[in-house]
Amino acid sequence: MNQIRMNQDLMKIKQQELGFLNHFQQRNYELIDLGLVESFQWKDLSQDDLHLMERRHKWERNGTLFALRSDWTNAIVRYRKKYQLHADKIAYVGSVYTVDSERKQLGVEIFSANVKEQFKVLEDMICFLQQELHTTLSVGVISHNMLLKKLLNKDEHEDELVQQYIRDRNYDALGSRLGKDHLLVRLMKEAPADQGDYLKKHFPELADQLKEIEQWQDQLDSLGVEYVYSDLLAVPVQSYYKGIFIHVYEKNAVNPIGSGGQYTSSSKAFGMAITI
């Protein structure tokens, strides 16, 4: 009986993967598959590479660094640059590994600074979740990578304790570290729904970023996500996000079923992945 159940679960996962690739092939995405093992030269690693390398399975041989794939976006950006791949829209399926986890990801990337085209990729992904996986998306959370960089000076932003206190929403500890009158500490006292108005009043130079957040909120609203809000204190999961980043959740779920955001490749880009 257990073997039958295992077989059924395996077939279900494979059918979801195939359904995902079919869904996006029909929408003119180029399908891509990459090797699990990546090779690097230490001198060529970017700051994002070094940041990700801390949590990767890696080894060194004959002066070359090898690592298991831990992130699809970085792998695709490197592959696209190395082989001069000109596809603007890419879909992929495959596992990623960190030192403490293995996850199967189904994701998409668009290499375009056109926000309307990025909206369409978001729509395609939400459509797959709703129509193919029959997922009810209960919550959407949006933030912008530039907000914390504007609200903190360079030393504060690079302070690991400050980042940890923000993630933990530890108001007392953050106030002790930065001072109770620090704008970010005062912002933490505000409810997420009121943070945008608070920043518009006290930090008008953030108007462009706040407007972008509102545009992406409207887009998620129009796609049928039940409750969408901005969390201006959210810390992005990946360091390479340079603009909007998004999490979408099923009802009563603690972890997001889908995550993504804007980042910089040769030009502004957007990617989103779901985990099964």
From TrEMBL:
Residues 14-273 form the Class II Histidinyl-tRNA synthetase (HisRS)-like catalytic core domain. The keyword NAD does not apply. This is ATP phosphoribosyltransferase regulatory subunit. Signal peptide: none annotated. One of its GO terms (molecular function) is glycosyltransferase activity. It comes from the Bacteria. The lineage of its organism: Bacteria, Bacillati, Bacillota, Bacilli, Lactobacillales. It holds the Pfam family tRNA-synt_His. Keywords: Glycosyltransferase, Transferase. The keyword Cytoplasm does not apply. SUPFAM superfamilies: Class II aaRS and biotin synthetases.
